[in-house]
Amino acid sequence: MDPDRVKRSLEGEGKAGFSSKLPDHFFDRFILHGLRIDAVEHGRVLCSFSVPPRLSSSSGGYIHGGVIASLADVVGAAVFYSAGILRSGVSLEISVSFVDVASIGDEIDVEGRLLRAGKSVGVTSIDFVNKKTRKTIAQARHTKYLAASSRL
């Protein structure tokens, strides 16, 4: 393994870089394609999706953990919007506890809830549950900086 080659590949140096060959917003479309929004309430977002092969890990045919983390980021941000918090900054922390697996073809329910929205920081909780077995796949927390409006 050549660490410099791996670094150049990920950083997209020149035309040979991995990321330079991807279309704009590739990862958003890759992760979000097939996600259904089932309900939106104040401070609560319900979604569902079927695990497609493209989102599985290379071994075992289970959903890749990075997919869960990415969805926690996106759904957590949507929860803030559902609560009328339109000023959003960067994610401060995303933590995920993986407690079971989801296989290709499994239907997954995703529920995001607002836990707290203060003056500058907000926290959401996102649960991933197998629709058929009702077993929890993962639980996530998403903490975001809520950008303060400018007083200039």
TrEMBL record:
Superkingdom of origin organism: Eukaryota
Occurrences of domain Thioesterase (ranges): 60-135
A Pfam family recorded for this sequence: 4HBT
This protein's GO CC annotations: cytosol; mitochondrion; nucleus; spindle
Reaction equation(s) it catalyzes: a fatty acyl-CoA + H2O = a fatty acid + CoA + H(+)
GO MF term set: fatty acyl-CoA hydrolase activity
Subcellular location: Cytoplasm, Cytoskeleton, Spindle; Cytoplasm, Cytosol; Mitochondrion; Nucleus
GO biological process: one example: lipid metabolic process
The entry's keywords: Acetylation, Cytoplasm, Cytoskeleton, Hydrolase, Lipid metabolism, Mitochondrion, Nucleus
InterPro entries cross-referenced by the UniProt entry: ACOT13, HotDog_dom_sf, PAAI_dom, Thioestr_dom
Entry keyword Nucleus: yes
NCBIfam families referenced in this protein's UniProt entry, alphabetically: unchar_dom_1
Family: Belongs to the thioesterase PaaI family.
Quaternary organization: Homotetramer. Interacts with PCTP.
Function (record text): Catalyzes the hydrolysis of acyl-CoAs into free fatty acids and coenzyme A (CoASH), regulating their respective intracellular levels. Has acyl-CoA thioesterase activity towards medium (C12) and long-chain (C18) fatty acyl-CoA substrates. Can also hydrolyze 3-hydroxyphenylacetyl-CoA and 3,4-dihydroxyphenylacetyl-CoA (in vitro). May play a role in controlling adaptive thermogenesis.
Protein name: Acyl-coenzyme A thioesterase 13
